[in-house]
Amino acid sequence: MSKDTAVLIFRILSGIATTCMVSSPSLLMYKIHKQKHVGVASVFPLAALLANSHVWMMYGYLEDMWFPVFSCFLYGEFCAVIFLTVYTYYCADKCYVIRTLSVFLTVLGLITIYAVVGGLGYTGQSTKSVSTVLGIFADCAGISLYGAPMEKLFQVLKHKTAAFINVHMVYAGIANNIVWLTYGILITNWFIMFINILFITVNTFTMCLYVKYDPKTHPLQDGWDAENDEDEQQLSVTIEMAPHLEAKKSLTNMPSPEYSCLSSPLEDMSHAAAVLVFRILAGCSYLVMLTSPSLNIYRVYKAKSVGVQSIFPLVSLLANSHIWMMYGYLAKIYFPVFSCFLVGDFAAIIYLSIYYRYSDNRGYVVRSIATTVVIIAILSAYAIVGGLGYTNQSRHGVSTVLGFFADVASLCLYCAPMEKLFQVLKHKSAAFINLPMVLAGYANNMIWLTYGSLIQNWFMISINIFFFSMSTFTLVLYHIYDPKTHPLKDGWDTNTNDNSEDDDVQIQISVDASDKSNKNFNLPSPQYEAMRSPVRTD
């Protein structure tokens, strides 16, 4: 499939995805119409949808991107007007709705005037320059749209229910973001790529909260909004002031260097130079990621104990490094893939050696390492046999298969913290999270995603998008349950292993010492019945 065909396909998919996204609030609007009340629905996402659609529509017009950008967001603008009309009609606090819409419409009016005046040439700018400025505003509008659920996420965490989340809009947003990110990569549009990476991260976190606090299992309790009058007045003043401050800030901080630097890869560097720069950055970032476990390993060495550290991230690091090293060799990506992941192989072996030395449960460590080594050995044998041509595959065919296994190994590595995230939620402390590894992975993912986009390697692109989302969710949990403010309580691991030998001995002694006459009594639990057999004297 040629690149032009791929662009055409994803242009159509992007249009369909956007149509679905802007139509997703229709289910909520229908419920409001039936109930004659807005309930817990917020006006901010709808106003943000209007702003996002209008600014992107103007950007598409100036960039001559008639489909899907101009046409689909023009449709989104009409949908937003209809949704806001229904919301305003059934809203009890119409004054707040009018104030919110006034702020959004004022900002949109100013941006529209700039687009018209600049497009006619009265600002001394070319059409390309005006569209670049509008692209920045479009990203800001997109952030306001996908940051809109954050207005209610605090309520979700406070009341322990996801009734505040418009799940239909979130579902449509996830599908929309993935398609638009792919389309942005194909046409090399940095505005589309940047904002959709951010969107995927926000939507992933929102869906995690929705799954945890599902309204079906965590319904909204009666009297949740029973607050005293002073608090309600304080809250309304805060909400009223926030949009004005944001609008003022966005208008006064126009020449932001953060956005200015986005155009540099396209204007000041050739494609080959950009690939070289990000190849070096990718190699350096991965080496930094390799050093992140060293802080925890040093603590293990000083404490002479592994503590709450898990072995799973370390064996996953070994598997991930080895498989990507083989993939880099077969795909002829000697730097940074082959060389850097070869270093990762050796680093993982050193970390595992220290972990094994100070582990109290060496049997479990040996079993974990043995399982990983067996899997690596099988894949290594396949890589050697296939690379020599004995499987009737080309070198590219073998590297493609290894690419899939490399992505799976990476999933294991970056999902390794999930082994402890359940403990974080259970004990309300982030002491289980290996923060240095998460931070190193965050920076590493962004650089590798850019490098993968430049060389059009879909194994790198797909897996690093997922990594970015996972790291974001982990950091949010760490912030909520910071070990400094939520330390691990004493006795957190009491009775976590009911089948340990120490517990069994205590149970045996207590039963034997309580009353020897109960020796032949049939206990209802087969576990205790089996424990008595070694002390029988018959």
UniProtKB/TrEMBL annotation:
Residues 513-538 are annotated as: Disordered. Keywords: Cell membrane, Membrane, Repeat, Sugar transport, Transmembrane, Transmembrane helix, Transport. Its main location: membrane. The keyword Repeat applies. It comes from Phytophthora citrophthora. It is found in: Cell membrane. InterPro entries: SWEET, SWEET_rpt. The keyword Thylakoid does not apply. Belongs to the SWEET sugar transporter family. This is Bidirectional sugar transporter SWEET9. The chain crosses the membrane at residues 6-28, 65-89, 96-117, 129-149, 161-183, 189-211, 306-327, 333-352, 364-385, 397-417, 429-451, 457-481. One of its GO terms (molecular function) is sugar transmembrane transporter activity.
